[in-house]
Write a structure and sequence with these properties.
It catalyses: 3-dehydroquinate = 3-dehydroshikimate + H2O. GO terms for molecular function: 3-dehydroquinate dehydratase activity. This protein is of the alpha/beta class. It has one domain: Dehydroquinase, class II (Rossmann fold). The protein is built from five helices and five strands; from the N terminus they run E-H-H-E-H-E-H-E-E-H. A five-stranded parallel β-sheet has the order 2-1-3-4-5, with helices on both faces. Helix 3 packs parallel to helix 4. The longest helix has 15 residues. The relative contact order is 0.22.
Length: about 140
Amino acid sequence: MKLLVLNGPNLNMLGIREPDIYGKETYPQLVKLVEDTCAELGVEVEVYQSNHEGDLVDKIQAAYGAKDAIVINPAAYTHTSVAILDALKAVALPAVEVHLSDVKSRDDFRQVSYVRLACEKTIMGLGFQGYVEAIRYLADKYQK
């Protein structure tokens, strides 16, 4: 199985940005956890982070025919990006939306997720473990 793990804006600032919400672990630690989890499951993984919406759309489009599934934490673009939603719908790959925090308990504007409309599952509030759960879910369901 070939997996794309896609991370949106400000996730590169993990450990610095609002550690009371997002934790003290860093982005490199997240990448290592994702890579280690995938290695354990025999999943080939590409991890990518960008602060730019178009870059994320380009990565999703490039996954068409090259990847089997996507784990996406669109971060702030969750609540604003029809472009990312449309890209996910266009490639029609199995996708899981992940959020480090429990978005349901946060600001009103964070209750809207455009991306969720193209994802078969949403995992939130588990911190880094949400990525592990998403990877395991996709591997169990789609690994050949």
